[in-house]
Amino acid sequence: MVGYDSKAQGAAPSPEEVALAGSAAGMVTRALISPLDVLKIRFQLQIEPVSSQRPEGKYWGIFQASRCIHSEEGLSAFWKGHIPAQFLSICYGAVQFTSFEFLTEMVHKMTPYDSQTAGVHFLCGGLAACTATVICQPLDTLRTRFAAQGEPKVYSNLRHAVVAMCRSEGVMTFYRGLSPTLVAVFPYAGLQFFSYNVFKKLLAPPPKNGNSGGNLRSLVCGSGAGMISKTITYPFDLFKKRLQVGGFEAARIHFGQVRSYRGLLDCMVQIAKEEGIRGFFKGLSPSLVKAAFSTGFTFFWYEFFLNAMRNLRESRMTDSLTKDLKEK
């Protein structure tokens, strides 16, 4: 079960086990969903409509964009920015789940509320995600820059990108888009944990020993939770991506029109005027597919790795007790 559970039998996972499981879940999930992430970012950054009925921009839809990227940039383009993205996923997964487990335990011990209620999961999930976002934002900006650039590349590798961005734009450029990210991430992550909690209880009650493992139920519940939370908070993710590529316009010219924004409010106003309300939801289709797989796999692998470490720990304890009994 995700979150502190006082009713679970056996010892609760240690912070180290939680961090390791969160990191491993993030790493595996990132490798699987990277192509969808690249498509989503390309759609979000396109000023022209993303529509097969009005093919004004470079990309019209998921299949057309996939063919276009593959023919122009090769198969590896779907994993552009994968190294900073992996750093982001590993770091984010560790911080988010460690914070979440810590917060739910504190709620149980210091308040009258049950740590396994959906409302507690919403609050703790949102706070945990905000903590992880502040720590990992520079990696997210780097990931976006790499995924957004075409050919020829502006940044040849991660070190080159960090040095170039620091010299030309300053250190604070790594935190571009942080405001809309924090505004969106609290309800987004909160809804993820909230919906996951609700779906798990609706589909089947958790086993008495608190060991839900990494099974199909976790995958289905996580996928549903991801789609719900992504749909509700999607515009803020788009604002963040537009702001993160500020100062990066030269690399975007051959993709179509480019825009500069003075901040979050200016970004929202310009998009509303030029692209309409539908502009706030550009890239939603691949984003929903990505959210379903990403959130589903994240919870699946997180519970899978926690379960594996729990079984390993219990096996070692059993072996140790057996050995002590034999010696006596």
Write the layout of secondary structure elements.
Layout: H1 15-45, H2 62-73, H3 82-110, H4 118-148, H5 158-169, H6 178-203, H7 216-244, H8 264-275, H9 284-327
Helix pairs in contact: 1-3, 1-9, 3-4, 4-6, 6-7, 7-9
Description:
- With 328 residues, the protein is mostly helical.
- It has 9 helices and no strands.
- The longest helix has 44 residues, at 284-327.
- The protein is elongated.
Helix percent reads 55-70%
What count of helical segments does DSSP give? 9
Query: Which parts are unreliable, with pLDDT below 50 for 5 consecutive residues or more?
Result: 209-213
Rounded to the nearest angstrom, the distance between the terminal CA atoms is 37 Å
Give average pLDDT, whole number: 84
- Major sheet attributes: none
Instruction: Write down the overall geometry.
Output: elongated
Beta percentage is: under 5%
Q: What structural category arises from helix and sheet content?
A: mainly alpha
Radius of gyration: 21 Å
The strand count comes to 0
Order of helices and strands: HHHHHHHHH
Please sum up the structure shown.
The protein is 69% helix and 0% strand.
List its salient traits:
328 residues; mainly alpha
